[in-house]
Write a structure and sequence with these properties.
Layout: E1 2-7, H1 12-15, H2 23-38, E2 45-50, H3 53-63, E3 68-72, H4 78-83, H5 86-93, E4 97-101
Parallel strand pairs: 1-2, 3-4
Length: about 100
């Protein structure tokens, strides 16, 4: 089983106006926090990905021949009907079963 976190890189046009820590620093901090969560859980791996979560998660599932993706969802708002949510993107692209928690 793998505990996965995905974060998107800050676009260059935004980064020049915001104080953003380097992506590597964010990745390492996130990985450390996930390892703390997974501590004591035998067989639980940790993976930190960069990219669009709706694409990166199904891609990782395909690469690892995953049987199931478990993902959390929120109550959809009006914006989700027009843009879609990360969860809906994962469900549409997943190569395996997806369990959506609400």
């Amino acid at each position: 089983m793998t505990l996965v976190a995905v974060f998107e890189d800050v676009p260059a046009y935004v980064a020049e106006y915001a104080a953003v820590k380097p992506a590597e620093h964010i990745r390492e901090t996130l990985k450390k926090r996930l390892k703390d969560i997974a501590k004591g859980q035998d067989g639980l791996a940790v993976s930190v990905l960069t990219g669009k979560p709706g694409v990166a998660i199904p891609d990782l599932a395909a690469e690892t021949s995953a049987d199931l993706i478990v993902i959390n969802s929120h109550k959809p708002g009006v914006e989700d009907y027009f843009l879609g949510s990360t969860t809906s993107r994962v469900v549409r692209r997943a190569p395996c079963a997806v369990l959506v928690l609400r």
